[in-house]
Amino acid sequence: MKANLKYTILFCFLLPTFFGQTQQFNFYNGNSQLFNKQLYSFGIQAQKQNALCLIYKLDLNLKTRDSLKIDLGKIQPEDFLQLYSDTLHNFLNIYIQQKQKKLVTILRFNKSFEQVATIENVDIARLNSISNFENELFYYKKDVYTIKNQTDTSGKQFYLNKFSLKSELKNFEYEFKWQFPFERKNINSAHIFYADSNSVFLYVNVIGGIKFGQWVLKINAKNGKLIRGTKLNDKGETATYQYGGYYLDSTKKTLSLIGQNFTPTQFDQKANKLAISNAPFVSVYLIEIDSAGEMLLKQNFKLPVNEPKTTSKKIISNYIFRVTSINKTKEGSIIFETDIFKNTDNTLCYLYANTVRFTLIIEEETLSLEKSTFGTNLMIEKYYFNNDKMDMNGKLCIDSLSQFETLFYKNLNFPIKKQFKIADDNPIWLLTRSDLKKNSINYTTLNPVNKIYQLNKVDDVVKSKDPLLITLTSSQFIVATQEELGKYQIKLLEW
Fold first, then answer.
1. What is the SS3 string spanning 422-452?
2. What global pTM score does this model have?
3. How would residue 351 be classed by pLDDT, with cut points 50, 70 and 90?
């Protein structure tokens, strides 16, 4: 690529053509990114003998608000790989790479769509290099926190590391700031779930010794010193409290945690045994901790299982809850939403089965669960279930029970649920699945039509078109595709 890239504002002759709720762009290798409540679409176009990178800034109605072109030199558009992007450190970062090349050019923009930097000839192995050798990354502004562990003859040692961004004008590389070493013995896992300029919060599972149980650690973000450790288990209690979700109340300065808990009979970490099949209910805890790390509130709630009548009694079933959001009302009620995963064959894999919203209401100075049950949503199961063991749609798997707690926060490679909402008191889903046989990506809504729930196909796109779905608001999303060479298309859809 040319050493000095040039850019100018695009004029009307380069603006895309409008087709109602569809935008079409005349470029190759297209992609899109939601950034700062604006949609950016970009790709490669030929102009005379040179290749241009075209970037459009669109509002959420797909109207063009700004645009840019960047000269990439005397290269054919067909010689580039598909462009890709991210929003690390609150920048729009667009990555451009030629085929058969290991060097990448990075175009970086701030929230005002001002070009901050053009970084050329970055070895692809050095892109965001911290992710290549660290686990459990957590970004907060210019800081990055990671969990790293090492195993030797004395056991497994965990470390919390803090790094800071060296420069906004170069490839993202980081300066080491401090390291917090966990106690050497009996820690099975550590998970970062929140950070700000003052502190870092972690969920830690200790599987032996006098400190056996689950802990929330609060670490000083400036120097890496332990501020406070709060044990979730009562003294002598051997129940297990899995990580779920959190809510920080800035007014009361409290931290609320909601997640699934298990009795020692249901889950025995020392013996590595899990026995939760066909339980009549799932137990969920609520714990509230003050700014000093003292436990203010601890309650358990039983959520009854109500499987559809069509389910065979011979089939076993057990559930895990992954809390996706927690909110408090002005009246003090707590609303939490959870994705439900089900296992039916005693393996270590769980399949997405439903999403349910629960409410904890105040009654006589305590919280109680508003009457509610849960079970498998048969329409969701129908949408993606098959007997192919290699199909990873909606599937969470671990290698052994020693990794059990990671099921409650690890990322899914192929999530089924793209978005969930309640409209007119009815739950509605936007779903997606990868079809291995058709080599396509399917997008479907599940919603009531004339009071009957139906699966309604939105689109089915072959993977060669590099389909992308981005949710814009609670009622709008786009499906973007490279329809053909030199033609990139975005559909704005409402649901």
1. EECCEEEEEEEEEECCCCEEEEEEEEEECCE
2. 0.91
3. very high
